[in-house]
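How it folds
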Amino acid sequence: MSHDLTSLKKALATAPAMTVKAKLFRRVEFLALVSITPPNWLYTSGKPQRYNPAGVHCVYFGADVNVTRTEFEGIWQGLKGANQPATDYGASVDLQRVLDLTSAATLKALKVNFKDLFKSWRRAKTPTLTQLLGQAVSESGLFAAICYPSKAAAGRGQAGVNFVVFRDCVKHPDSVEILGPTSKPLQKWP
């Protein structure tokens, strides 16, 4: 089925939501992290990625450290920066409405095929279905995040789940808090 931004926004209105209250993880290039003082743990570049076209600000997390490391290695595989230092860190998230793309019911409501979630986005000349879906979530404000299966983990024969959290959709009572050495978060949304 062909999807466009308008049809995806309409489908989101009837899509089921899940609540996520969990510790999630990120792995970031060390030099990129320390290039900003103080470090911006929730930095959003607005550059296109799997679930966002250019201009949509979001942060990607993995459900566990193994997933984030697998994703990181997949991104850098075969490139000069493959062995660069990286930093793992955690976030405590409390999100009331998350679009769960690991759920058959959600995919059915959106009229999305599971295989569509794994299509390449890197060299696409126009926004992909997953990027349009992220844009629809961001613009509609109906969900704070998307939960989706890890392509990198699947490529290794493992199960894994990622989350993309949309900065402008995280509103009280939702929260994303970067965990630090004390009970005070290093950074948080909202």
